[in-house]
Design goal:
This protein has 445 residues and is mostly helical. It has helices at 3-38, 40-77, 80-106, 108-114, 119-132, 136-151, 156-176, 188-212, 230-264, 266-303, 306-333, 335-340, 350-366, 368-383, 388-410, 416-442. The two termini are 20 Å apart.
Length: 445
């Protein structure tokens, strides 16, 4: 394949994945925007609650993410039975994780108070999480189906199902947060109910598609679903837990930053949440490209195509770098208008949120390229089922280096919220360097 062939193949597979990630992110952005209109304390609470939900979710999603390279390699080998076995046990492990994680959401108020959050914010965050936590199982199952369908090049349905969920979430938010259309005014609890409903509808749609589409029936995904397959479960678990911990290490860096920003002030935490939403939207593009790269690398690995693996990797990295450069220019050129989209100008705190959020968004431009390269490197490494050493590299970069740097810069050195985000830049840059070196050292072999 030529470079243009690789680029075309990556985009054909990756663009629907990017769209589905952006749509999934839009669920959270919708909550942030609408609660920003509702009240600053409510916005801060949901920023904190959503971050807590996400940190648990990404730990459990390791099993779902393991399904993608395993199914891709099985397809590359022509082993259709293994496709069913791996996917089904990914579903089993995701359900089990969702069950055991719910007590954390029920006791979240106590946990957040112990972590130094303000009582009124912690109480509202607990109200949100006790309902939103019920969506952990459907959210994880959605991830498994995304991995399964992505590895089989069935990404369009994921995109359209997720877009439909965004529409449902926005409509229910309008009713349940504000009490419109005769519905009760539930504030943060209304946002949680809307999110859970959207997740349930999404998993139902994807499961129905996977079961009913004639082209996929040969995999018999739900055939004797209740029967355990211990060998396949062990394989998914062994590949998935390092992925989950790697994601936890990275997510923990951002969650720790949110917690420390809460120590500084409510306005700062709200601005942090908005700037992080904007940065995360851009990150979804790189994540979609990384997912496509994982699938294509898995196909090449399963089929023994070493040259195709390396050439595809170079092209995918070029695409990600090009988009990253564009986002840097946007964040540096229009930070205030971007932040203003998430706030109600009539609120007295809006001016302070926009001012501080604009500074943070300019700092977000500093880590765009590093963030893109670390997630692309992870996608490549997962495609060849290399997950344990990358996990250690992530822990070193984010927890041993990144979080301590954020704390020292913010508090002992007095840079405040700006210092917290400079720590993000340091941790992500180190991770990108280590992970990219890991892949290219191993790629020729």
């Amino acid at each position: 394949m030529t470079k243009s062939d690789h680029a075309r193949a990556t985009l054909v597979l990756g663009l629907p994945m990017i769209g589905s990630h952006l749509a999934q992110m839009a669920l959270h952005v919708t909550d942030t925007v609408m609660l920003g209109w509702y009240g600053v304390t409510e916005l801060a609470a949901v920023v904190l609650g959503s971050s807590a939900f996400f940190i648990v979710f990404i730990l459990g999603s390791g099993f779902a993410q393991a399904v993608m390279p395993m199914v891709a390699q099985a397809i590359g080998r022509g082993d259709e039975v293994q496709v069913r076995r791996d996917t089904r046990m990914g579903l089993w492990l995701s359900i089990g994780f969702g069950v055991i994680s719910y007590p954390l959401f029920w006791q979240s108020g106590t946990i957040l108070l112990a972590l130094g959050q303000k009582p009124e914010v912690a109480a509202l965050a607990q109200d949100f999480l006790r309902i939103a936590g019920l969506g952990m199982i459907p959210a994880l199952l959605v991830m498994v189906f995304k991995s399964y369908l992505g590895a089989l090049e069935r990404t369009q349905v994921v995109l359209w199902t997720t877009i439909a969920a965004v529409v449902v979430n926005a409509g229910m938010n309008w009713m349940l947060i504000f009490g419109n259309g005769g519905a009760p005014e539930l504030g943060v609890r209304g946002a949680a109910i809307s999110s859970v409903t959207a997740q349930v509808l999404t998993v139902g749609g994807l499961a129905g598609y996977a079961a009913a589409l004639p082209a996929l029936r040969r995999f018999a995904l739900f055939q004797r679903f209740w029967r355990p397959d211990w060998h396949a479960m062990g394989q998914v678990f062994r590949l998935g837990w390092p992925i989950g911990l790697t994601s936890l290490a990275e997510g923990g860096l951002f969650q720790a930053t949110a917690l420390m920003m809460g120590w500084i002030g409510t306005v700062e935490l709200a601005a942090h949440g908005i700037a992080m939403e904007a940065a995360a939207l851009a990150f979804m593009v790189h994540l979609g490209l990384a997912n496509a790269t994982t699938v294509r690398t898995g196909w090449a690995q399963g089929g023994g195509d070493a040259q195709g693996l390396r050439d595809g990797a170079k092209v995918a990295l070029g695409l990600s770098l090009g988009f990253g450069a564009l986002i840097v220019a946007v964040f540096l050129s229009w930070p205030a208008p971007i932040i203003a989209l998430f706030t109600d100008a009539s609120k007295p705190e809006s001016a302070a949120i926009i001012a501080f959020g604009s500074t943070l968004l300019a700092l977000a431009a500093l880590f765009q390229i590093a963030d893109a390269m670390q997630v692309m490197a992870l996608g490549l490494l997962r495609g060849v089922q290399d997950t344990r050493v990358p996990m250690l590299m992530a822990v070193l970069s984010y927890w041993v280096i990144g979080i301590p740097c954020s704390y020292v810069l913010a508090f002992p050195l007095g840079f405040g919220g700006v210092g917290l985000w400079l720590g993000l830049v340091i941790g992500l840059s180190l991770a990108a360097s280590l992970l990219m070196a890991r892949f290219w050292i191993r790629a020729p072999r």
